[in-house]
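Researcher: Here's a chain I'd like modeled. Treat it as a single chain, no partners, no ligands.
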Amino acid sequence: MTSAEDYRFLADMLARHSGIFLGDGKEYLLESRLMPIAEQFDLPDLPALVQRLRQGAGAVLVQATVEAMTTQETLFFRDATPFKALREMILPALVPSRRTQGRRLRIWSAACSTGQEPYSVAMLLATLAPPLGPAEAEIVATDYSPKALARAREGLYSQFEVQRGLPAHLLVRFFTQTPGGFRIAEPLRRWVSYQEHNLLQSASALGQFDVILCRNVLIYFDRPVKRSVFECLTQALAPDGYLLLGAAETPYGVTESLVRAPDPCACPGVYVRNGGRARPAVATVAAMASPQRVAASR
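Model: Modeled as a single isolated chain. Structure tokens:
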């Protein structure tokens, strides 16, 4: 069992390294998630783990501890709204504009965990009519956890994971069953580039993006950290780009740099830069949506 002092130490460490605010009453969470880390590093219990961390443990142990304390919950096509907004409104608005400009659409999946979100985006782009491919769209996916990124790059998922949110026709089309599970098609794996990135740090090295998905992670941050992250996301967002947040997340009351997307792209969780460039005209959905379009809303 962890003492109150050890709990505060671990909570402070988590906040410093990842921005996540643990709050009170989560001792059970530490017990379940950190004992495997203690065992991995040949430590008898959690107090011994905390002692090692207090003594200035190496970066490997700190990284493993923080990773274990973070939430990696994800699934394919998580929540219907953002993918519907992408398919029916955002992409029809941006794709003709980028084609005219002669440049690729850039999409950033921030805090991508084990890859279900960026691969969902890749499947969505591949099922549009006409489909988009790497020549027209670039997908960059980042996460704090090297372990999660390694799983994402491998693109191998269990039966349970592919049954969560993934329509059957997309499983058949884009996955191959192997003895170890279901592996996503190699072209889609190669399409997504994965990079280690901490949302507490500047994203300037990643460049500017037309669409940013940063969903279901800001709910774990306190207000000052949220403000800092929102400012970084805003700076990385193209003047006419779109930011997609989780259903329980909003910049209101935290920053004035972002506002709800105006019609016809006004969907819950979709935001644009405050004072950003005018949105491009929206093409008809029929011009973009495939007859067998991604059934994210099913």
